[in-house]
Structure formats: C-alpha cells, structure tokens
Design a protein that fits this description.
Helix content: 25-40%
CATH architecture of the largest domain: 2-Layer Sandwich
CATH superfamily of the largest domain: Aminotransferase class 4, branched-chain amino acid transferase, N-terminal domain
Structural class: alpha+beta
CATH topology of the largest domain: D-amino Acid Aminotransferase, Chain A, domain 1
Strand content: 25-35%
Bound molecules: pyridoxal-5'-phosphate
Largest sheet: 9 strands, mixed
Oligomer: single chain
Mean pLDDT: 95
Number of helices: 8
Radius of gyration: 21 Å
Low-confidence stretches: none
Order of helices and strands: EHEEHEEEHHEEEHEEEEHEHEEEHE
C-alpha cells in the first residue's frame, strides 16, 4: 500500500479540564507505571482509497479521553493493532529529550507491514510525539530514573466485519509519567520457562510489536507468577530449546571472557531498540557481541561451569534488569538472591546516563522534544 502525505500540521484543541498543578504534582510524586495519563493525546487518521493508496489526515492534539469507536471496528474483532514504546527524559537544564525515536518509527512501519496496516511517514510519527510532549511538557518528571512513557499505537477503526485489512485507521499517541521502576535498588528477577505456551510461531507476528502477541503472553505470565517468578521466558516455537525472549524484553548473556551473546533475530523475536543500543555500547567498549542461537542447555551448563557470569533482560520500560534465576518444572538455574553483575550494572548506567543527559551521546541518539 502506498500513501501520499502532504505536510500535516497538528491542530490543537486544548483540554478544558487539565489537571491542576497540585493534582499533577501529587501524581508525579508517585506515578508508578502506566496508571496516569497526561491531559492530551495526538491523533492522525488514515483513509484508504480504492486504488490501494490512501492518506493520513486530520492531525490533531485533543484532550485525553475515551475514544468513540463503532462496535464493528476491526481492532475490536480481528486485533488489527500495533504499538510502540519510548520515553521522554528531562535533563538537568530542564530541556526534554527522547531516545532514538526514528528507530521506533521504523519499527512501527515494519509492524504495520506485517499487520496489513498503512505505513506512517517517519515525520508524522516524530511530529505527533513532539507535539504531544510540547503541550504536556509539565508532565515530564525530573526525578532520578523517572520519565514520561510515550505509547504510540495504530488501530483499525473501520466498521466492517468482513475479514480484510481495514480501510480506516487511526494513529494515536498517549503519554504516562513513569516512576523509577525499581525504587532505587536493582533486584534481579526470577524468570519462568514457558513450556506449554509460545508468544509467536513460524511465520507469525513475533517480530511485530502488536497487541496480539501480548494477549498470547498473559496466560503464561500468570503461570510464571503462580510459580514465584516475575517474567516469562519464551523458547523458540520450532524446536523448543533455543532462548528467544521475555514477554516484552530481549535477553543478553555475559560470558567469563567478557563477551556478550544475545539470541539472533529469528523472525519470531522482537528487535528491541534497547537491544540494539546495548550491542552498540558493548562494541564501543571493545567487547565481542555475538547474535546467535543459544539454547537452554547452554544456559544451564554455562551457569554451572561458570562460563556464563551474568544474564540480563532489556527493554524501554525497565531499561536493563538482571536475571537471577531461571525456573522451570522441576529445575532451577542460577539463584534468586544473586546480585546484579558488573557488566549489567555498568552498561545500564551508561545507557541511562545517555538518556538522561549525564553521559555524552556520541551516537546522536537523543532528539530534543521541548
Ligand atoms: C517492546 C518489546 C521489546 C523491547 O523493545 P525496546 O525497543 O527495547 O523497548 C522486547 N520484546 C518484545 C516482545 C517487545 O514487545
């Protein structure tokens, strides 16, 4: 599908009932994650034309609030939905920045292609994010480890129950203040090996960031919690012995010789922006990073022999999280009270430092929003 996009100007309809400075301060004092939303939202609509093209139009900032959707809207029946996740950080001088948004815009379009949704021009993605953060800039917290989490998403809004790609689509961005994920201490998490369930299959949507993958991960996530774990590890859906990723984070292994290994993009793994940033930062340090198959057996043996010294997960929301223990039916690898490793902590500090302006951004990853 091809679309034309003329210069889209975001019109602004400001909220008549924004939160007062006091209400906002109370929320920002303890925002948690994904619980509170800012006063506005960015919206752009798409309408397809008969020739298979179409256009994005009606770019606007409007008050945050419920969406009016026809009950027959495609997203409600066939799950035609994709999303992104990125953050805005307040730097010491008060300016507001985001991290590699072009990578999120590109990934949104890869997801869109797989879900038969229209391509969104990168400029529209960046303009939407920028317009929203500018109007809601006071919602960007300034505390240590805090940020404004941005959630762009695209949904099929056309009212039609026949099974085909929708011809009416909306792209939206909402924003939610996020506290320090770990409240100071970085405690390693325990991970449950999902044997019965996969989040993705051969030729499926595993490499796309879509709601359906998350729906598939919720039952195994409950299973993980019932087994005393915080997260699920998914194995490759073909042979069931290679490590893929967690429900929403990629995985890295640190070896005794200092080298790093992360599962190669198999077609069913989501390519994280954090994953690619960690690869780059490790290479900058002269470390060898290999993207390859790594099996559960290699993990088990590596931890037992001491060859694997650290394991961590990474993604935008939690940045970098050490993995202490891997648990499956009748087995445990590692230890629940392991300490976060040196390499894990050091890469985490560097990445957070770049994002928050404390460490020099040598790769040009930051983009100013306000
Ligand atoms: C979003 C996501 C990640 C992490 O991607 P980042 O761009 O680093 O936030 C990893 N795995 C899955 C399944 C995801 O949806």
């Amino acid at each position: 599908m091809t679309q034309t996009v003329s210069e889209l100007e975001f019109t602004q309809q400001l909220s008549a009932t924004p939160k007062s400075a006091e209400e906002r301060a109370a929320i920002l004092a303890n925002p948690g994650f994904g619980k509170y939303f800012t006063d506005h939202t960015a919206v752009v609509d798409f309408t397809a034309t008969a020739d298979g093209g179409g256009s994005w139009h009606d770019a606007r900032i409007e008050p945050y609030g419920p969406i009016s959707l026809d009950p027959a809207a495609g997203v409600l029946h066939y799950g035609q939905e994709i999303f992104e996740g990125l953050k805005a950080y307040r730097h010491a001088d008060g300016s507001v920045w985001t991290f590699r948004p072009e990578a999120n815009a590109a990934r949104l379009n890869r997801s869109a292609a797989r879900l038969a949704l229209p391509q969104l021009p990168e400029k529209v993605f960046l303009d939407a994010v920028t317009a929203l953060v500018k109007v809601d800039a006071e919602w960007v917290p300034s505390g240590d480890g805090e940020s404004l989490y941005l959630r762009p998403f695209m949904i099929a809004t056309e009212a039609f129950l026949g099974v085909r790609a929708a011809r009416e689509v909306s792209f939206r961005v909402i924003a939610s203040p996020a506290g320090n994920y770990f409240g100071g201490e970085l405690k390693p998490v325990s991970i449950w090996i999902s044997r019965e369930y996969a989040r993705a299959g051969r030729g499926g949507t595993g490499a796309a960031k879509c709601g359906g993958n998350y729906a598939a991960s919720l039952l195994p996530q409950i299973e993980a919690e019932q087994n005393g774990c915080q997260q699920v590890l998914f194995l490759d859906p073909f042979n069931n012995d290679a490590i893929e990723e967690l429900g929403g984070m990629n995985v890295f292994f640190v070896f005794k010789d200092g080298s790093l290994v992360t599962p190669a993009l198999s077609g069913s793994i989501l390519e994280g922006v954090t994953r690619s940033s960690v690869i780059q930062l490790a290479k900058d340090r002269g470390l060898t990073v290999t993207e390859r198959t790594i099996t559960l057996d290699e993990w088990r043996d590596g931890v037992a022999s001491g060859d694997i010294t650290e394991v961590f997960a990474c993604g935008t929301a939690a940045v970098i999280t050490p993995i202490g223990m891997l648990r499956g039916k009748g087995e445990e690898i590692g230890s629940a009270d392991a300490k976060a490793g040196e390499v894990t902590l050091s890469i985490r500090e560097q990445l957070l430092g770049i994002q928050t302006g404390a460490v020099e951004d040598t790769h040009g990853w930051l983009r100013r929003l306000a």
